[in-house]
């Protein structure tokens, strides 16, 4: 058994490290968790002593195989609960993240497997992020950041990489949702903002920062 804090650190390191493949600095972890650097250093030492992370000064922190296994398990629970909250309770995609943060710490593997079956073995959460299967496998994709595409390019919005309430509510006001068709009408060189067309009808301007958070499948 691991504490809620330990599990939160493991999941955060997993998210920041591109699925556990690249080192993460303690400052990045501190920023993500809104924690003080000394507290992060202390927790990383604790996780390292438990064989869940490895840390090298000036290099950063990495998950061990055991640490990654636990992190993927937490991510799986989180994303399945998000699907349940949207699909079965009718909650909005902007409402479920903080609730799933609490539910991801339920320890029963049997419950999670039943939940997965009940939901029909979903492959993606409400934000388009892949759900690890029971063996820890995570589907890969060829989606591109909208910010890296060119004028005239178009594609289907498949995922968003930010699930804060404010950001998702902003997308709702602009009628930007998963599955919508996005076309770049104009890229403004002075600030890299974009004018986009949504579903071949409405057009709107978005910032480069927003475009970096939208993952597109080209069509």
UniProtKB/TrEMBL annotation:
It is found in: Cytoplasm. Residues 1-64 form the HTH dtxR-type domain. GO terms for cellular component: cytoplasm. Keywords: Activator, Cytoplasm, DNA-binding, Manganese, Repressor, Transcription, Transcription regulation. GO terms for molecular function: DNA binding; DNA-binding transcription factor activity; protein dimerization activity; transition metal ion binding. InterPro entries: DtxR_MntR_Metal-Reg, Fe-transptr_FeoA-like, Fe_dep_repressor, Fe_dep_repressor_sf, FeoA_core_dom, HTH_DTXR, Iron_dep_repressor, WH-like_DNA-bd_sf. Homodimer. Belongs to the DtxR/MntR family. PANTHER family: IRON (METAL) DEPENDENT REPRESSOR, DTXR FAMILY (PTHR33238), TRANSCRIPTIONAL REGULATOR MNTR (PTHR33238:SF11). In the presence of manganese, represses expression of mntH and mntS. Up-regulates expression of mntP. This is Transcriptional regulator MntR. It comes from Thermaurantimonas aggregans. The lineage of its organism: Bacteria, Pseudomonadati, Bacteroidota, Flavobacteriia, Flavobacteriales. The gene is sirR.
